[in-house]
């Protein structure tokens, strides 16, 4: 069974609280633990932060569309923006540099840290970007313990 | 989010409450840079009332540690709630910062 909803918000850091509230409620509906709810909420926050910083250059008039798809065993969150093309190679370089810096206890860059956190807590992190239509970030998190569901005529089953 | 600063001996105690993210972290940064600009020997950031922190907040604290390190000052964190501590652990920064349970321990360490 799938539930779907979307939010259209300006690329304004003030909106992050609203985003987090909605994502955390959606995660609770799927059945994630408190720890998982916090993790997914953090990942979406980091995704939005990257869009505001890198795709809209911290301009608050951009648009971010947040789509949430709730499944029995997972949540899929899509962040769509219409800003400048995301430099995926640069993002990956940042992530590796941050990981290396942390291992060596050196200086950590904020952007790289956010990407690293997203990858740490989500099961899938997928980007699509184009110079004409902006970027799409797709984040997927599976339930570690899917809920038991009633199957008509055959008791209950998991999975 | 709220930030309050008070002096206790040689230490500046920066108490933060609420959620620290891209929108609110500049306020925390301002308080830290003001104290590090004065070369305060020890900066203690009390996070006991912080319910949420993202990478912007963490990066602000990393910067604070680097700024105080430049003049050999101390930079210590206090009272991380489990959800905030988890972010530090994910970023593997829990081993980089000096983290204490309370202000007294942080000042006396």
- Profile the largest sheet of chain A: 5 strands, antiparallel
Coarse shape of chain A: globular
Indicate the overall shape of chain B: globular
Strand content of chain A: 25-35%
Rounded to the nearest angstrom, the radius of gyration of chain B is 12 Å
Gyration radius of chain A, rounded: 17 Å
Strands of chain B, count: 5
Oligomerization: heterodimer
Query: In DSSP terms, counting alpha (H) and pi (I) runs of 4 or more, how many helices of chain A?
Result: 4
> Approximately how much helix is present in the residues of chain A?
40-55%
Strand content of chain B: 25-35%
Q: Numbering strands along the chain, what is their spatial order in the largest sheet of chain B?
A: 1-2-3-4-5
Structural class of chain B: alpha/beta
Distance between the termini of chain B: 28 Å
Mean pLDDT of chain B: 95
End-to-end separation of chain A: 13 Å
Spatial strand arrangement across the major sheet of chain A: 1-2-3-5-4
Major sheet description of chain B: 5 strands, mixed
Characterization of the model:
The complex is a heterodimer of chains A (159) and B (109). The longest helix of chain A has 22 residues, at 34-55. Chain A contains four helices and seven strands; from the N terminus they run βααββααββββ. In chain A, strand 4 and strand 5 (134-142) form a beta hairpin. Chain A has helices spanning 16-30, 34-55, 88-103, 110-121; strands at 3-10, 63-70, 74-81, 124-130, 134-142, 149-150, 156-157. The model of chain A is unreliable at 150-159 (pLDDT under 50). The two termini of chain A are 13 Å apart. In chain A, strands 1-2-3-5-4 form a five-stranded antiparallel sheet, covered by helices on one side. Chain B contains four helices and five strands. Chain B has a five-stranded mixed sheet. In chain B, helix 1 links the parallel strand 2 (11-20) and strand 3. The longest helix of chain B has 16 residues, at 55-70. The interface between A and B is medium-sized, with 27 and 21 residues.
């Amino acid at each position: 069974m799938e539930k779907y909803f979307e939010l259209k918000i300006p690329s304004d850091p003030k909106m992050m609280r609203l985003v987090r509230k909605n994502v955390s409620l959606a995660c609770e509906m799927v059945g994630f633990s408190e720890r998982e709810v916090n993790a997914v909420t953090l990942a979406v926050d980091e995704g939005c932060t990257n869009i505001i910083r890198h795709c809209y250059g911290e301009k608050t008039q951009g648009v971010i569309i947040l789509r949430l798809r709730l499944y029995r065993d997972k949540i899929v969150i899509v962040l769509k923006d219409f800003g400048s093309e995301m430099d995926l190679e640069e993002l990956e370089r940042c992530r590796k540099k941050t990981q290396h810096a942390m291992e060596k206890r050196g200086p950590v860059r904020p952007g790289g840290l956010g990407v690293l956190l997203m990858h740490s807590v989500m099961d899938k992190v997928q980007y699509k970007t184009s110079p004409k239509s902006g970027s799409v970030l797709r984040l997927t998190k599976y339930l570690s313990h899917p809920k038991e569901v009633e199957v008509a005529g055959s008791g209950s089953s998991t999975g | 989010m709220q930030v309050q600063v008070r002096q206790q001996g040689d230490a500046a105690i920066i108490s933060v409450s609420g959620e620290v993210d891209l929108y609110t972290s500049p306020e925390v940064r301002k308080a830290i840079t003001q104290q590090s600009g004065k070369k305060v020997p020890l900066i203690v950031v009390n996070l006991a009332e912080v319910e949420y922190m993202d990478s912007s907040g963490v990066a602000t604290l990393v910067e604070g540690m680097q700024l105080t390190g430049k003049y050999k000052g101390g930079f210590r964190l206090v009272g991380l709630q489990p959800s905030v501590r988890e972010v530090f652990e994910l970023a593997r920064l829990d081993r980089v910062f000096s983290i204490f349970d309370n202000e007294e321990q942080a000042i006396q360490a």
